Amino acid sequence: MTGEVALLFAEIGAAHVVLLAGVAFLAATVSGMSGVGGGLLMAIFIAPVVGVKAVVPTVGVATLIAHVIRVWVYREHIVWRPALVMLLGAVPATIASARLYVALPADVIAVILGIFLLASVPLRRLMAKRDLRFGSRSLGTIGATYGFLAGTTIGGGILVIPALLGAGVAGMALLATDAVIGLSILTIKTVVFGGFDVLTPRLLLIGCLLGLCMIPGTYFARWLIVRTPLHVHVVAMEVIVVLGACSFLWRAIAG
Fold first, then answer.
1. Tens digit of pLDDT for each residue in 211-240?
2. In a 10 Å sphere around its CB, with 0-12 CB exposed, 13-18 middle and 19+ buried, how is residue 45 labelled?
3. What is the domain extent for residue 30?
4. Measured between alpha carbons, how far is 189 from 61 in angstroms, rounded to an integer?
5. Segment 90-108, tens digit of pLDDT
6. Residue 140 to residues 79, 83, 100, 160, 233: CA-CA distances in angstroms?
């Protein structure tokens, strides 16, 4: 295992390794504070290293590890009923869309990621402004939509936060319940991608290393969450997401 890591470091380069480690830490801090945005941020920087086709499965492994830590950190605040209702709709949709992702060519994936990244900024702002209220049926429907997005894109969790808020889940309970939902879906994605050889041993190793770098970011986020207003990092994240979306679309056009 040590030899494989050394080969990976030699292949990617020390500077890129340090950059990706820093991005993973920042991504965990962002998602740990707001529940969304970490995967989007990581995808932008990891695409040049692993290729567009490998972005979703690689980031999925990294964020899977981060979600395990988030569930542990916020375990006492989990609200199980809305989580299970959303997962009833999300699980089958994730399996279907992840299978679809396997069959898509890289340029189509780049377009999908680019468009979704661009759309995520106004969508987040729109949903944040509305005082939404959701019952079990609505949560199941939103869960299915989230599951379909989660299998083919990164950042589908942008639907989960307002849905949970609309179900009366807030504060630490919001982050905890979102973490349970995300962990479940990421586990399913990893199994599907591994079964269809999209998640190669090299990508698995990269994802695991990034996930380990995200662990301290999760704890740092918990320390920051009671001390820092969210609006500063939200605006910065939106700028990065828009630039990243343009990068993915450019790759699709140029490729």
1. 888 888 878 877 776 666 656 556 655 666
2. buried
3. 2-254
4. 9
5. 999 999 988 888 888 878 8
6. 15, 10, 21, 11, 30
- Contact (CB, 8 A) for 106 and 200: no
Domain count, the chain: 1
What's the predicted TM-score (pTM) here? 0.74
Q: Give the Cα separation of 29 and 127 in Å (integer).
A: 22
Q: For the purposes of burial, counting CB atoms within 10 Å of the CB of 231, is it exposed (0-12), middle (13-18) or buried (19 or more)?
A: exposed
Residue 241 contacts residue 37 (beta carbons within 8 Å): yes
